[in-house]
Amino acid sequence: MYKYLLLAALALCLFVGIARSEEAQDASAQLAGQLDALHTLAGQFSQSRLQAGPSGELSHSSGSFRLLRPSFFAWDIENPDSQLVITDGEYLWHYDRDLETVTRRPLRSEQTATPLQVLAGDRDALRERYTVSATGRGRFQLTPRGEDTAFRQLTLVFAEGQLAGMEILDNLGQQLLIEFSELSSPPLTPEDFHFVPPEGVDLLYHER
User: How far, in whole angstroms, is CA 125 from its chain's centroid?
Assistant: First the structure.
């Protein structure tokens, strides 16, 4: 009798495992479909960084962004400081206008993808690097499969087919909440993400 109960329990575990795997694949396919519809995207953003526990909000910033999938995005922080993060398909650039510094890293060698790179990425990278689950209507939670990651969890929020926000839990236990507004789908091209460092800035080029 015990043997049959054990076999039944193993069969149930196998069934549950298959069901969860199929559910994850379905959520990943749904998210990929939502992102595929966002070939180009531009708009405004407002982001707040929250400390774990009762400390509350640590910082708040706002600005504009534009996106051309795959591989191209620009994140332009306008307030309270002035910074630009942009990818041109080959490099990831970080231009700190206040400090007058430019940092460049090879995009293809990035081992720890940022949330923006996830947003601008392709189906294969999404499926291979993350476990995707649907946590509510229009909400998709991504959990990195590897240990060397830039965040613990990323939640993409959609409303009426449009990207409405992102919720990011980083490796320090801090939460970043991002809301998008004034969205449009302009006819962007890779040339719109071409970046040339301004004269006089300090340059920091990393080969990996």
Answer: 12
At 170, phi and psi to the nearest 5? -90, 180
Bridge partners (DSSP) of residue 95 are 84, 102
Short-list 166, 43, 68, CA closest to 115: 166
Place of tokens 């409303």: 159
Three-point CA angle 153, 49, 98, nearest 5°: 120
Q: Using one digit for the tens of pLDDT, what is the confidence trace for 20-79?
A: 344 446 888 888 888 888 889 999 999 998 876 555 667 899 999 999 988 899 999 999
Pairing of β 72-79 and β 101-106:
unpaired
Of 108, 123, 117, residue with least CA distance to 85: 117
Q: How far apart are CA 109 and CA 60, in angstroms?
A: 30
Longest Cα–Cα distance in the chain = 81
Residue 176's Cα: distance from chain center in Å?
11
Domains defined along the chain, listed by start: 2-205 (2.50.20.10)
